[in-house]
Specification:
12 helices; mainly alpha; 282 residues
């Protein structure tokens, strides 16, 4: 029995590869430019003709950030705040999304509506009331206060995505686990959460990028605690108040981008599974 293979026409294949290369270039070239700018001496940044690799590459910008800008404490504060925010936020989101998806009551429907409505409120609108509240409960300029604010920022999106994903998981799977002797908590941990792994990886990377790039919250609600996203405002000016130290800015930018690249590289398989599961209904 003869089988036929459907092959794309050569022009279409070349067009697809060409578009893929263009998209890859548009994404990767800015990253490459930030990196080479971070290892280029300040005096060679604006040399002509443009050089895509410095004649005298140096790590002086990174050394300056460590020795004079306090880079290591900023990395530590960022790791604590972002890490705990994502961890606690994911635990709360899983429990909330499970409740919204599995239990149908009027109160939960109203809570879901308020949750979605909170995503429409700009941060600037709630800035002053939250500032006064954090002052009154002595959480201003503390790790705990920033973690609470970070968690409140990622909860609505995370709960919404996980709830939609849970709606596609048959309840019969959890009922079968209950028949086999699993309690509610055991069923949630050992049955439901493993099925949520692709969705968890997807929202985890989104929340990681969101928290790492959060500029307004740590800038407005803290004074002594400095994270990487606000550290760029503390870079010293060299010659005059109008001269931007682009080598230091590039080095700080690359330090912020690098964890995101590693994070995506580690969880790329789970992220793609989450995207495919959300896009294919069966």
């Amino acid at each position: 029995m003869m089988t036929t293979h459907n092959h794309r026409p050569l022009p279409l294949t070349l067009l697809m590869w060409g578009l893929a290369l263009i998209v890859a270039f548009l994404i990767l070239f800015p990253l490459w430019w930030i990196f080479i700018s971070s290892i280029t001496p300040a005096g060679e940044l604006f040399s002509k003709p443009i050089k895509y690799w410095p004649d005298h590459p140096t790590l002086a910008s990174y050394r300056y950030l460590i020795e004079n800008v306090g880079l290591l404490p900023k990395i530590w504060d960022t790791a604590i705040i972002v890490g705990l925010s994502i961890l606690i936020g994911m635990i709360v989101s899983v429990m909330a999304a499970f409740s919204f998806a599995r239990f149908r009551t009027r109160g939960l429907a109203i809570a879901t509506g308020f949750l979605l409505a909170s995503m429409l409120i700009p941060d600037v609108v709630t800035a002053r009331p939250l500032y006064d509240f954090l002052r009154s409960v002595h959480l201003y300029d503390t790790h705990t206060g920033l973690i609470i604010l970070y968690i409140s920022g990622i909860l609505p999106f995370t709960i919404l995505i996980l709830q939609n994903y849970l709606n596609d998981i048959p309840v019969s799977i959890e009922e079968s686990a209950a028949i086999d002797g699993c309690g509610f908590v055991q069923s949630l941990i050992y049955v439901t959460v493993p099925l949520l792994r692709p969705a968890l990886a997807t929202v985890c990377i989104v929340n990681f990028i969101t928290c790492l790039n959060n500029f307004f919250t740590p800038l407005f609600y803290s004074n002594g605690i400095s994270v990487l996203s606000t550290a760029i405002t503390q870079l010293p000016l060299r010659d005059n108040m109008y001269a931007v130290p682009w080598d230091l800015v590039s080095a700080m930018g690359w330090i912020i981008i690098l964890p995101i690249i590693f994070f995506v590289a580690i969880f790329q398989r789970q992220i793609m599974e989450g995207i495919m599961a959300g896009g294919v209904k069966g």
